[in-house]
Amino acid sequence: MNVFSIEIDPREIKLLEMNARYMTHEEFNRLVENVRRDGQLTSTPFLCKEPDGTYLCLSGNHRTMAAIEVGLEKICCLATDEPLTQDQKVAIQLSHNAISGQDDPATLKLLYESILDTEMKKYSGLDDKTLELLEQFSAVSISEANLTFQTLSIVFLPDELETAQKVIGEALERAKSSDSIYLARFKEYDDWLDAQETVSSAYNVHNVATAIDLILRVFSRNLAQCAEAWEDSDDDKRWVPIESVIGRSKIPVGSAKIVRKALDKMLGRQEVTGENLFQGLEYMAADYLAGE
To answer: Would the CA dihedral through 241, 247, 248, 254 be positive or negative?
Structure first.
């Protein structure tokens, strides 16, 4: 095999779509810090030249990603320009997996089984003991270092946090009583982003947490509109949130005392129970309607 040394921008190197070698997030961070400290790669990735002139990284994918993370403009690599079959590429990949990290057994199994050429299977360097272990795996696992992810932090002010925690808490409580899991379509996610953008623009705010707090406040002020969901229902046994009837608004202390006194009187006469205080409001509303 014709092998030569080249210097190349790591951002121009194509990475493997399926890589049996993985690193934990912590291991990859250590690799990045080592590259940043050294100012270069101390071990050399191995590339193969593709028909379109680009270079594919067969060994050293994580070192290449670390170089990109650090911002190295050029890295030194070994490369071959000989045409390689897919079996040869996979076999070289497996045989070169000697840097720090671990093999994802399920991915390793898939890659090994994808090699059709018997000689290339031997070239991969996997021994009988490793192959016996691979028989234990039947599904593809997800490796931490092969995932592309970002962390999003939302910072709430104290009053915003209280509102958000209340709503999220209610959602979690409702979820506990459900045996089903529902996934929202991308359209619903887009609708949420649209709502966030609308509120942000209307109130001229740029903080995501503040925008979420405003959305929750708008929702609270318009809870009564949820009545549209049950007003035409013929199911009298159906339960609906009382907020959709009277909203989540507060009432004056004097009014609250009058309502409370009437409900306590109904409780004393056993006309309603503590679990069904809403019936007291129903009776009062029925009497009022009867007097029309």
So the answer is: negative
SS3 assignment, position 14: strand
Neighbours of 263 (CB within 10 A): 20
> What are 284-287's contacts with CB under 8 Å, separation 24+?
none
The two beta strands, 55-59 and 13-14, are parallel
Distance CA 227, CA 220 (A): 13
pLDDT per position as a tens digit, 262-288: 888 888 888 888 778 888 888 888 888
Complete domains list, the chain, with CATH: 3-146 (3.90.1530.10), 158-246 (no CATH), 253-290 (no CATH)
> Do residues 67 and 74 touch, judged by C-beta distance below 8 A?
no
For 123-176, the pLDDT digits (tens) are 566 655 666 665 665 544 444 444 455 555 666 677 777 777 776 776 666 555
- Where is 55: in which H helix or E strand? strand 55-59
Counting runs of H as helices and runs of E as strands, what totals does the chain give?
Answer: 12, 7
Residue predicted with more confidence, 286 or 178: 286
**pLDDT tens sequence across 242-268:** 776 776 667 788 888 888 888 888 888
Whole-angstrom distance, CA of residue 68 vs CA of residue 88: 27
